[in-house]
Design goal:
Elements lengths: L1 H61 L6 H33 L2 H6 L2 H29 L5 H28 L7 H4 L36
Helix pairs in contact: 1-2, 2-4, 4-5
Length: 220
């Protein structure tokens, strides 16, 4: 009788622990999804907008015969407005995301590839933030300080390097056979459409003959 009670008790305890673990996996996925949805709603729109207006301005500079000076100036001023609107939103979002990644339950419960991808993604968006802050410094200082340009170059390198690491890991992890995915999967946020996920690449936009390489979609 004692052995039977021990076996039953062990089974009940195991089931309880498993249920709690599965619940936490799902709860973390839901919370992470909400945080990313806020990115799509609040952060990415001004980020995409300022980059698009910069591309419009660059195109106007390279083709002055096709675009009036007034329109080119309008592109540039809107670019600056959206740049300044984006930066604080990214700072705030990164603080929220950092707090989420540093939580004890996230660190204890999530699979290693989720934690590692989260760090790559975080550093990628840090690169976007630092790039924007450096651009604001360049504008405010008339672009005369070489150390600010060094910050900009470092930010772009950080963004590109971690973007590659993030997407490589996401693609690799999609092939993993892991039962935890059943409980850690949630529907992709409805607000995160292609329109707010595709971030334009402005690299070389002002070069005489720019070779623009389209950046990957910024997802998850």
């Amino acid at each position: 009788m004692k052995i039977k009670k021990i076996v039953i008790g062990t089974l009940v305890l195991t089931l309880l622990i498993f249920s709690l673990y599965a619940y936490k996996l799902h709860a973390l996925a839901v919370e992470g999804n909400k945080i990313f949805e806020q990115r799509c709603l609040v952060v990415n729109p001004p980020l995409i907008s300022y980059k698009n207006y910069f591309l419009n301005f660059a195109d106007a500079v390279k083709h002055p015969d096709k675009v009036s000076t007034e329109l080119a100036v309008g592109y540039f001023l809107t670019y600056l407005d959206d740049l300044r609107a984006y930066a604080p939103k990214e700072v705030a979002w990164l603080e929220t995301q950092r707090a989420f990644l540093d939580r004890w339950d996230f660190k204890l419960i999530e699979p290693w590839y989720i934690k590692e991808a989260g760090e790559y993604q975080y550093r990628m968006y840090e690169g976007y933030r630092d790039e924007a802050l450096a651009l604001i410094e360049i504008v405010d200082s008339d672009g005369n300080k070489s150390e600010i340009h060094a910050k900009f170059d470092a930010a772009r390198t950080k963004r590109n390097d971690n973007s590659q690491l993030y997407f490589d890991l996401v693609n690799e992890a999609s092939e993993f056979k892991d039962w935890r995915k059943i409980f850690g999967s949630v529907p992709f946020p409805g607000a995160c459409t292609d329109e707010v996920l595709k971030i334009p690449d402005t690299t070389g936009a002002l070069d005489p003959d720019p070779a623009r390489v389209k950046e990957p979609d910024i997802t998850g």
